[in-house]
Amino acid sequence: MADKSKLGMEFPVRSIEVPKNKIAEFAAAVAQLDAIDDVKEIYRDVDAARKAGYENIPIPPTFPTCFPFWTGGGLMGIVNAVGVDLSKLLHSEEEYEFFAPICAGDIITCTMKVAEMYDRGKKERKGWHIQVTVLITEAFNQKGEMVLRARTTFMER
Amino acid sequence: MTIDFDSIAVGDSMPTYTSQPITRMQLARYAGASGDFNPLHTDETFAKAIGLDSVIAHGMFIAGIAGEAVTAWIENKYLRKISVHFLSMTQPANLDDFENTRDRATVTVTGKVTDKYEENGEKRIRCEISVRDAQGGRKLKGFFVAALP
Predict the structure, then answer these.
(1) What is the pLDDT of residues B53-99, one digit of tens each?
(2) What is the CATH number of the domain that holds A131?
(3) pTM of the model as a whole
(4) Do residues A9 and A50 both lie within one domain?
(5) Is A145 on the interface with B (CB under 8 A)?
(6) Structural domain span for residue A27
């Protein structure tokens, strides 16, 4: 069961450099491609990306999902920090709001906090009572610009 | 393939995008690419231990396929928001019973423009998106907002 005393908790601030090769690998995964060479050019070739109007190779839209997994304790770090039972964990919603492009080589600094924790459904009805946790991540680039706000909702079934 | 604000009308459909059948290998690839190593997606013994019939796809893998569908239509530099709500689990195809399990693992992304408006000095569209498997099961609903030239 999620530990409700963790409501409002802020995770340690972490910075990562967005790796070029990881963008191509992610783009291949979501496009269900075996070969990196088959990935769209803007995700693997800096010249193609610049020609398309990006400063460098851009990230695919759902790439920010990676940031919390690559820092701190990864998934288990988050699960343990909020006291969630991994065997009951389900990701229910994800939202990204983009304020500026995120590209290869950017240094992204993420803050993440437990924004909401609440119960849904009736406690006495088995299978109908779930605990919901909402994490808000804000990401800033090396220029100090806020580039992204992410809202992650998960539940314990 | 430049789409501009004036060429899009409320009610227009996004081009339909259909995935390949999702396999366990693809779940492993997505796990490695994203860093999401929840064993629920790659370890059959873990999935069975928590009462599921098999591993299931990462919700964010399905969302990533939806993102691929969106950016096949609208360049990703124009995206301002993408929001997804997961509706059901997706089991991968079984390679030893492919014909009978392919449809549950093949997803189609559709979308419809629901609004055109100005915000922050930009011309924006809002488009609702939906992902279903080839058996009609609803996997994901959501929307994106794009600012168009």
Answers:
(1) 999 999 999 999 999 999 999 999 999 999 999 999 999 999 999 99
(2) 3.10.129.10
(3) 0.96
(4) no
(5) no
(6) 20-58
